[in-house]
Design goal:
The protein is α/β, with parallel strands linked by helices. Helix content is 32%, strand content 29%. The longest helix has 15 residues. The two termini are 19 Å apart. 36% of the residues are buried. The protein has a domain of 167 residues: P-loop containing nucleotide triphosphate hydrolases (Rossmann fold, 3-Layer(aba) Sandwich), CATH 3.40.50.300. β9, α6 and β10 form a beta-alpha-beta unit.
């Protein structure tokens, strides 16, 4: 089991947000969390990556069976965790190329040969339909919504994490961009990696192979199942699932 979350409770500024989250994602699987605004979905992603603003008040997070509660964000990233941000920050003065070279060096513990780096960066950019001149632009500075999401996926595909957490990777995308992003995420599936997607909408799931859908309400998972769970949400909304569980 790559990711195990046991009765996880977390708060920010003394306000409880996560109220007993239990979740397991084995290697090779892609799970989805859907839920209304304010339910704690993004808090969960931040807590998993060790964001310092959040305090874990109970429970545990295990990566490959080992507790990571005392690990820094850097340690979690180096161990193979990746978070795609819902609202990626701009970094004026730092190019996509330089950011990725620095990231790859930190991940490997040694500098990646320049030729190898350029070949891999170009391969991934071509797959995502990104102009290669994009690498010279400053990170997220003046990027459109679709460009920001492609840049997040570019980082993930370069880093090849064991656990990828994608927080609303589909927000702000048109139909063509959505399909490109979905294709890129789908390509990342392999027997040694698991992924957790956070989204509001079923539209992304229609382009992907999903193993499990979880409904998140008021800081906890209230229902789980297959794609039929997403279908039910489309028809009935979240209120119908507050006290139910679909298995």
């Amino acid at each position: 089991m790559i990711l195990t979350i046991r009765d996880l409770h977390a708060a920010i500024d003394g306000t409880a947000i996560l109220k007993g989250v239990n979740l397991e994602i084995p290697a090779g699987e892609m799970h989805v969390i859907m839920g209304p605004n304010g339910s704690g979905k993004s808090t969960l992603s931040n807590v998993l990556m060790g964001h310092p603003d959040y305090t874990v008040t109970g429970g545990d997070i295990l990566l490959n069976g080992q507790s990571i509660l005392n690990w820094s964000t850097d340690e979690r990233a180096r161990s193979g965790m990746f978070l795609s941000f819902q609202h990626p920050a701009a970094i004026p003065g730092v190019s996509v190329n330089n950011l990725m070279r620095n990231v790859m060096q930190n991940m490997r513990g040694a500098e990646m040969p320049l030729r190898e780096f350029r070949q891999e960066l170009n391969r991934v950019m071509d797959h995502l339909g990104m102009d290669r001149r994009f690498a010279a632009r400053y990170v997220n500075d003046g990027f459109s919504g679709g460009e920001k999401k492609r840049n997040e996926l570019l980082q993930m595909m370069m880093m090849q994490p064991k656990l990828a957490i994608l927080d609303e990777i589909d927000s702000g995308l048109d139909i063509d961009a959505l399909r490109t992003i979905a294709s890129g995420v789908e390509e990342m599936r392999n027997p040694q990696r698991c992924m957790l997607l956070i989204t509001h909408y079923k539209r992304l799931l229609e382009h992907m192979t999903i193993d499990r859908v979880h409904v998140f309400v008021d800081g906890r998972i209230v229902a789980s199942g297959g794609l039929e769970v997403a279908d039910r949400l489309e028809q009935e909304g979240y209120e119908s699932m507050r006290a139910s569980h679909v298995s």
